[in-house]
Amino acid sequence: MKGITMNSIAIDLGGTHTKIGLLENGVIKDFRTLEAYSTGRLADQLQVIEKELFGMSEKRGWQLNECRGIGFAYPGIVNPKTKKIVSASGKYTDGPSFDLENWCSKVFGLPMVLENDANAALFGEHQYGCAKEYDSAVLMTLGTGIGTAVIMEGKLLRGKHFQAGCLGGHFITSIHGTKCLCGGAGCLETDASTWALPDIVRSTPGFFQSGLAKESVIDFLSLYNWAERGERFATTLLNQCIDYWSAGVVDLIHAYDPEIVVMSGGVMKGQDLILPLLSQNVRQWAWTPWGEVRIKVAEHPEYSVLLGLHTLIEENR
Ligand SMILES: [Zn+2]
Question: How far is the CA of 73 from the centre of ligand 1 (A)?
Answer without folding.
Answer: 20
